[in-house]
Amino acid sequence: MNKAKWVEQPDGYLDKTPIIQFILVTILFALWAVAASLNDVLITQFKAVFSLSDFATAFVQSAFYGGYFIIAIPASIFIKKNSYKLGIIAGLAAFSLGCFLFFPASRLVTYQIFLFAIFVEAIGLSFLETSANAYSSLLGPRESATVRLNISQTMNAVGDIIGILLGKYLIFTDGNLKEEMAHMSKQAAEQYGQQALSRTLAPYKYVLIVLIVMIVLFAITKFPSGKPKIKENEKTATFGETIQYLLHRKRYWKGVGAQFLYMGVQTGVWSFTMRLALDMFPNFNERFVANFMLYSYICFFIGRFLASYLLSRYSETTVLTIYSFIGTLMILYITFIPNITAIYAAVGVSLVFGPCWPTIFARTLEIVDDKRHTETASAFIVMAIVGGAILPMFQGLLSDFTNMQFSFLLPTIEMAIVFLYFLGEHKYDKKNTPKKS
């Protein structure tokens, strides 16, 4: 067995990035994005088949991101006691189980069993995100941690595109499901709905095969520990000690709060873009409006690459302050302009989503200078994903009481607060960065 081609530093970072290991970890970002973008497809499909309100359709995201929230701390404890590698393998295994549950779900044809399958899937994804976000930033020199995480997060866009294509061609058809079922007898509509739900299984078959391959690859590949070296006579931090440590860091909790709100924005916009198009233009069908999500994810991909370039030339807070300000204006436009350009604004706003999550994550984790607390601190940031479970429910509720377009007022407000967070961080950096002589 060859010796490792990297040197682990005392703080857990490496002297250089191991390429194969970094690529494997980066692929994980695409895998959980496939699952997330398929949720946007499922929301549209479930809306028609189960005759759900917009509030009820948001339960898909609640089950998904709720699983993240519940499991993030147990996942961090597991990783702390074992390793990032074992955390990733456990996550891939649970993700596989969730995909497998779509087999009975597609045959039992009840909304609840689908939600349960999505929840189990999310348990695995919580392990993956808790592991991979921190691990990606650790797989190389400390000074390039944010850039590394942004590169890994670029694969989110690739996974989003793959997921929406799988949904478009394997789940959706050329007809408008809701309109077709409206002209059928009750029994015929039920049978047609069952056929539509049976198609939801198809994408998960392919995802399951990829997950099994990834489990094998991670099992046979050597990875660095990513753990800081414990000094002589120094004990590892207990969970209680970590909580005490974090409670005294207000900027850390501001970052967690910003992540919570940002996830509400991203999930709300992506969950309801297809619903917005169908609501504003009833002559559209599901397969056609899936194109809007495909274009959204392409914009997301382009925005990520553009952000990676800008972040290499300008300060991250400067870039993100501008991005989040533009995003606020674009979502405000979606809310109040009653024509097709509002749909294109919903597509285009994904250009500015790209760097938000990884930048907030990396900046917030960097505040934790005592790396004994990294795993738990990372878990709390991942738990902020629950914003994607809670806030879209309120958006759906607002839609039920008003209309789908006006419901975008909620993510407008959320994005405005994220803008204020980055503006505050920008001022902090200017105040605390030493001036060049």
From TrEMBL:
<protein>
    <submittedName>
        <fullName>Fucose permease</fullName>
    </submittedName>
</protein>
<feature type="transmembrane region" description="Helical">
    <location>
        <begin position="58"/>
        <end position="79"/>
    </location>
</feature>
<dbReference type="InterPro" id="IPR036259">
    <property type="entry name" value="MFS_trans_sf"/>
</dbReference>
<dbReference type="Pfam" id="PF07690">
    <property type="entry name" value="MFS_1"/>
</dbReference>
<feature type="transmembrane region" description="Helical">
    <location>
        <begin position="20"/>
        <end position="38"/>
    </location>
</feature>
<feature type="domain" description="Major facilitator superfamily (MFS) profile">
    <location>
        <begin position="21"/>
        <end position="428"/>
    </location>
</feature>
<dbReference type="GO" id="GO:0015535">
    <property type="term" value="F:fucose:proton symporter activity"/>
</dbReference>
<feature type="transmembrane region" description="Helical">
    <location>
        <begin position="86"/>
        <end position="103"/>
    </location>
</feature>
<dbReference type="InterPro" id="IPR020846">
    <property type="entry name" value="MFS_dom"/>
</dbReference>
<keyword id="KW-0812">Transmembrane</keyword>
<keyword id="KW-0472">Membrane</keyword>
<feature type="transmembrane region" description="Helical">
    <location>
        <begin position="318"/>
        <end position="336"/>
    </location>
</feature>
<keyword id="KW-1003">Cell membrane</keyword>
<feature type="transmembrane region" description="Helical">
    <location>
        <begin position="342"/>
        <end position="365"/>
    </location>
</feature>
<feature type="transmembrane region" description="Helical">
    <location>
        <begin position="252"/>
        <end position="272"/>
    </location>
</feature>
<dbReference type="GO" id="GO:0005886">
    <property type="term" value="C:plasma membrane"/>
</dbReference>
<dbReference type="InterPro" id="IPR050375">
    <property type="entry name" value="MFS_TsgA-like"/>
</dbReference>
<dbReference type="InterPro" id="IPR005275">
    <property type="entry name" value="Lfuc_symporter_FucP"/>
</dbReference>
<keyword id="KW-1133">Transmembrane helix</keyword>
<dbReference type="InterPro" id="IPR011701">
    <property type="entry name" value="MFS"/>
</dbReference>
<feature type="transmembrane region" description="Helical">
    <location>
        <begin position="149"/>
        <end position="171"/>
    </location>
</feature>
<feature type="transmembrane region" description="Helical">
    <location>
        <begin position="204"/>
        <end position="221"/>
    </location>
</feature>
<feature type="transmembrane region" description="Helical">
    <location>
        <begin position="109"/>
        <end position="128"/>
    </location>
</feature>
<keyword id="KW-0813">Transport</keyword>
<feature type="transmembrane region" description="Helical">
    <location>
        <begin position="292"/>
        <end position="311"/>
    </location>
</feature>
<feature type="transmembrane region" description="Helical">
    <location>
        <begin position="404"/>
        <end position="423"/>
    </location>
</feature>
<feature type="transmembrane region" description="Helical">
    <location>
        <begin position="377"/>
        <end position="398"/>
    </location>
</feature>
